[in-house]
Amino acid sequence: MLKLLPFLLMIAAAVIHARLAARRTARELDERSAELLEPSLRPALARLAAALDLGAIRVHLYDVPMVNALALHDGRIFVTRGFLDRYRAGQVTAEELTAAIAHEIGHVALGHTRRRLIDFTGQNAAAMGLGMVLGRIIPGLGPLLAQWLMGLVAAGLSRKAEYEADEYAAALLMKAGYGAGPLKSLLRKLGALSGLRGAQPPAWLLTHPKTEARIAAIEAHEARWLGSVSGGSAP
């Protein structure tokens, strides 16, 4: 039992760290957000709700200037003030902003937001344990190497979740009568909107797949679904 004590302590520390980080994020969002009450977006959100057989979809406005949308582990959906400002300026259409919300709904519906907390805890514990082992082999560099390796694992899991949320969003948008076009056009705009132009790291370091790969995956889903419809079976 004593031999397992360091490992058990690492797991406990990782759990505490993950829980505290989640609470800090939730507190920040609580303090800087309110319900999104944009009249011009109500029809689009109502169409999404109808496609999901829901009475309404509640979205929160996070008061920060960056362009982003996110989902919390408790199921809440957020759109940033910067994103809404781009919509009001005509740089983003109502359908494209709705596509971003549909993507975040996908993260919630597919369990990504809750699993992210569990994954974060496990990755922290694994990084600590691997750091101890590698630290004995490569003093000084072992913990850094462990963090880098676990970062690669986290990035890979994140990219997989993004592909899955894209697929969910595309299906939801098609059911709502928009088609997947708004999601694809939004993805093409995001780099410029968020200021992420120029050279990027290799794909295996990114937490989100590259735009071209995401659009290609969405179009593959479209072709499969439309082929199923034309063949007489449900998509």
TrEMBL record:
Gene Ontology terms: cellular component: membrane
Domain spans labelled Peptidase M48: 39-220
Coiled coil spans: none
Gene Ontology molecular function terms on file: metal ion binding; metalloendopeptidase activity
Matching InterPro entries: Mito/Outer_Membr_Metalloprot, Peptidase_M48
Keywords: Hydrolase, Metal-binding, Metalloprotease, Protease, Signal, Zinc
GO BP: proteolysis involved in protein catabolic process
Signal peptide residue numbers: 1-18
Cofactor section: Zn(2+)
Binding note for cofactor: Binds 1 zinc ion per subunit.
Superkingdom of source: Bacteria
Residues spanning the membrane: none
Family the UniProt entry places it in: Belongs to the peptidase M48 family.
Full protein name: Peptidase family M48
Lineage: Bacteria, Pseudomonadati, Pseudomonadota, Alphaproteobacteria, Rhodobacterales
